[in-house]
Amino acid sequence: MRLLKSLIASTLTCLLTLPLTISTATAEINLPSIGDSSSSIVSRQKEQEIGGVFLKMLHSQLRVESDPELVQYVEDLVYRLAEASQLQDRRLSIILIDSPYLNAFAAPGGIVGINTGLFLYARTEEEFAGVIAHELAHLSQRHYARGVEAQQRQQLPTMAALLGSIVLAATGAGDLGMAALSSTVAGAQSAQLAFTRTNEQEADRIGILTMARAGMDPRGMASLFERMSKLEGTGPQYEFLRTHPLSRNRVADTKSRAEQYPARPSKRDSEYDLMRNRAITLTTQSPETARNRFAEELDSGRTVSELATRYALAQVQLNMQRPADAQKTLAPVASKQSGDIHIQILNNRIQFANGKRQQGITGMRELLKRNPGNFPISMALVDLLYNNGNYKEALEVLRTESQKRPKDPEIWYLIAETAGLAGDITGVHTARSEYFFLVGNMDDSIRHLEYALEQPKLAFSQKAAYKTRIEEIRSYKKTMKL
């Protein structure tokens, strides 16, 4: 584990010094997992431990997209596919990375990483799902373990190289980042990439089967791969294709296998259309450009979904602090789509921004009552309550969400900020401790629990709980060599 951390850390050090204009990943879109007959080399328990450490490093070093609506959509889709896959261990950690580059990866411990850029390139839900199904196939077939066996059981250097390359792939560091690895590890990685060309076809075939079992048209995978193969070498965002080749034979094989299943028409006004446009509004660097794009689509009628276009245009207008324009844009569909939570969340946000604060909050509360436990609605309500100064109620909602999503650093960060404004200093330190633990900073995690112990009038049971938690974190730090 010390070797793992040091190699990844060296890679990250190199990564953080690279200019923002650097090209996208040269690693594969399908970085695989550990296991199978190699369980004697790396046990399932060790795989989970490695994955836990790696997940903390991802949260610490990458820009993670925490938008609740996008996160929930992606999680639902991944689990829908996982249920239809050959995965035996379905304990997954899904991380959405704030990057415009087309990429996705799988890593030890059931980690599935997806760049927001995938929304920009996948035109339909089936295309988007095709990439996810491919990644899940790598996990289910435990391709990484087979690579470890091919490397004469030198699994730790190879594993460290692999995880380091995943970080580079996720952030777009390209070949320069790989220079941070030693020549021995780099050589092992080259052999691993060569080995996985065979795994690629296997992952394609099993991914196609997964999509069909999930009730999705596997032609989506074939159509995206076919389009990607034509883009190879046309720009830096496609550089990863050099080590993830989509040969004519592979594309043809994927297309042929997909066509063996019944065709399914794509849904108009689907949730994917809304979320794809939402991703565009979040990733664009120019709100004006996004506004002009969606306005032109709406005016010309050249749009895949009027609902999705109006939704995106209203969202951009709201972001630009033009709520009156946003209300006008959304009005034609707001009443017709009373059952769509994305439209209703946006409508309540617009009401709030238009000065009808209580109306917006009340509408969000009622929406949550109709959809109890819904994560995006809960977090939207928190946002309105926070901006209205209702810190204690916002804190109650956040703490409920933390029980359902205890490994989400963003929730603990928000709890700390909200608890401070609500006057709950002990709550601030407790939440900050959990946040720092989840991003791999054990020392600060312990330090905040020690601050909490210093608070006056602390109940004996609470003191005991804090002391127990401190010992747990110290033990984890020692075991994982963090």
TrEMBL record:
**What UniProt keywords apply to this chain's record, in alphabetical order?**
Hydrolase, Metal-binding, Metalloprotease, Periplasm, Protease, Signal, Zinc
Q: What is its EC number?
A: 3.4.-.-
- The record's top EC class is hydrolase
Q: Which Pfam families match?
A: Peptidase_M48, TPR_19
Query: What's noted on cofactor binding?
Result: Binds 1 zinc ion per subunit.
CDD domains in UniProt: M48C_Oma1-like
Q: Identify the cofactor(s).
A: Zn(2+)
Q: A single GO molecular function, which one?
A: zinc ion binding
Give the signal peptide range: 1-27
In this chain the Peptidase M48 domain maps to 72-257
Give the UniProt subcellular location, in the record's own words: Periplasm
Q: Kindly list the positions annotated as binding Zn(2+).
A: H134, H138, E200
Listed GO biological process terms: proteolysis involved in protein catabolic process
Query: What are its GO cellular component terms?
Result: membrane; periplasmic space
The residues responsible for catalysis, as annotated, are E135, D204
Q: Which family does it belong to?
A: Belongs to the peptidase M48 family. BepA subfamily.
Describe the function of this protein: Functions as both a chaperone and a metalloprotease. Maintains the integrity of the outer membrane by promoting either the assembly or the elimination of outer membrane proteins, depending on their folding state.
Q: What is this protein called?
A: Putative beta-barrel assembly-enhancing protease
